[in-house]
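Just curious: can you write whichever protein you like plus the matching structure tokens?

***
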Amino acid sequence: MTPPGAPREQRILLGIGFMILGATILPAMNGIVQWLTPRYPPEQVVWARITGQLLVMVALMLPRAGLRVLATRRPGLQFARSVCQVVSTSLYFVALVTLPLAKAAVIGFIGPFIVALLAWPMLGERLRLARMLAVAAAFVGVLVVIRPGGAAFQPASLMILGSASLMALYHVLTRMVSTHDRAETSVLWSALLGGVVLTLLVPLFWVTPSSVADALAFLALGAFGAGGHYCVARAFGLGPAAVIAPFQYWQIVTAVAIGVVFSGVWPEPATWVGAAIVVAAGVFLAIHEGRR
């Protein structure tokens, strides 16, 4: 691990490494989801993902901080964040039953642009011209991928849009609650509601894993989810967002590779075109915000 006093260039390179690692782990997790969902209820897969992350976070945080880490000054906001995460995850996982990984990844990248829109009314951040242009371009890119009204349109694409919108709301709520609660508190609360509720309901739709490989896949979901999000958070703590953020688009490359391995299907040309538009809009926005 690079020490706090290391040269700035080393810390930025380490941050880029963490982002690339996170952008590799998270599509791998989605590949496992796509492998499990044809044979197991989506509710059970979502339960494994959220509960696994919750258990990992509890194991890491409670020994150091104790139960006081659960104390929140804004329970309403924390409850809303948790609802957003569980519903967003559920929509995404259900969509992966029929939607290629690469296509889902590109559509999901509309999330940061929705954050830019929501930050205006909810956080009071001005929606400047550069942000408006980037958001408009990103939506055009997503429309190219989805192709609404066309023969290649897949309704599951709308579920990814809904998932991205809820995750964007989740991030805005996280920023709102960050001035009141510790980061560790928010991390635990994000998975707390879904973990508790789904654990109570999981006996209703439980299907026992039919093989050791399936059981290990269920266990891996939580570990991959926690590890991927940790890497992303760690990356942004090591370097400027304008430098680090563009490397999150490595997820598209990883999603293509994993999608080919799991299904043997290459992305359609429209997916590549839409991805190029979304990535260009994201890089432009990151550079512009970094300069400001």
Observations:
- The chain has one domain: 8-291.
- Residues 8-291 form one domain.
- The longest helix spans residues 8-36.
